[in-house]
Write a structure and sequence with these properties.
This protein is α+β, with helices and mostly antiparallel strands. It has one domain. It contains 4 helices and 7 strands, in the order E-H-E-H-H-E-E-E-E-H-E. The radius of gyration is 14 Å and the shape is globular.
């Protein structure tokens, strides 16, 4: 992995993510080498599954939860569809870009880890749910 490498993940649906902020300057979502290292170092048990599920989680989240500590940031939650991960969800911290500087900056994945159904239910009770997919 090259230091300061940036990989494009996908394009997000601006209408869906307006629940985080109305001021979304670009639909491009990126993952930096710094964020990959953060996930690997701080959440090694989640590294492979979170990165595999990353694009699908952003394109089709089950929930988007307010990140009360960081402006223009949301927590994207999606159930991991794997026989090995029964009742486990990917938990992605996504920073929305409100000023792309003419395409220089993009929406960015900050971190990601796995949470259990029980932990998710706690978040849903105690945090601001901005979006809930029907059937979730």
């Amino acid at each position: 992995m090259v230091e300061n490498e940036v990989k494009e993940v996908c394009s997000l649906d601006k209408e869906l993510y307006k629940c985080i902020t109305d001021n979304i300057d670009t639909d491009k979502v990126v993952l930096t080498s710094k964020s990959i290292l953060h996930i690997l170092n701080h959440h090694p048990d989640a590294y492979n599954e979170v990165l595999i599920e990353l694009k699908q989680a952003i394109l089709d989240p089950d929930y988007i939860i307010a990140d009360e500590k960081h402006e223009d940031t949301g927590i994207v939650v999606r159930k991991i569809e794997s026989s090995l991960s029964n009742g486990v969800h990917s938990f992605i911290v996504l920073k929305i870009c409100t000023d792309s500087k003419n395409g220089v900056f993009a929406n960015s994945v900050i971190s990601g880890w796995k949470i259990s159904d029980k932990r998710l239910q706690s978040y849903l009770r105690n945090k601001g749910v901005l979006y809930k997919k029907e059937n979730s």
